[in-house]
Amino acid sequence: MESMLLPILMFAALGALMYFSMKKQKRQAAAVKEMQNQLVPGSRVMTTSGLHGTVTAVADDTIELEVAPGMRTTWVRAAVREVVVPGPVEESYEDSYTDESTEIVDADPDTGSTNGGINIRKSNDLN
Predict the structure, then answer these.
(1) What's the pTM value of the predicted model, to 2 decimals?
(2) What is the per-residue pLDDT across 8-23, written as a single tens digit (0 to 9) for each?
(3) Which of 13, 58, 72, 88 has the most CB atoms within 10 Å of its CB?
(4) Digit-coded pLDDT (tens) for 82-103
(5) What are the residue boundaries of the structural domains of the chain, listed by start?
(6) Where would I find the beta strands (DSSP E) of the chain?
(7) Cα–Cα distance, 21 to 9 (Å, whole number)
(8) Does the pLDDT value for residue 123 go beyond 70?
(9) 39-85 is a CATH 2.30.30.30 domain
(10) SS3 for 119?
(11) Is-contact 64 72, C-beta < 8 A?
């Protein structure tokens, strides 16, 4: 009788793990379904493929996303992975350089290199 107790306990533990795992997955699926049902025009979303866009129209089972100004694509609601909350805007690469960080230098008279008549170097490179 004791030899049967261990396999029964193992199957019970396995069954409990499967039950709780399925329960968690159902809860997550319900949350995603609820989020997809509450999409409204103007929401920023990310699809399951990683495409970011703004919802412009909502139908029964499809949505229309604007992925670039004037470019709209139609998606199945189930393709929406999450609603994206915009964060703080970071300084762009082009904005990181100011007029103070560059210096305009005329062509080098020794080499005769004109390089279009102007050589531009970052001031950090002039050390």
Answers:
(1) 0.52
(2) 999 999 999 999 999 9
(3) 58
(4) 898 876 656 655 555 555 555 5
(5) 1-38, 39-85
(6) 44-47, 52-58, 62-68, 71-76, 80-83, 102-105, 119-122
(7) 18
(8) no
(9) yes
(10) strand
(11) yes
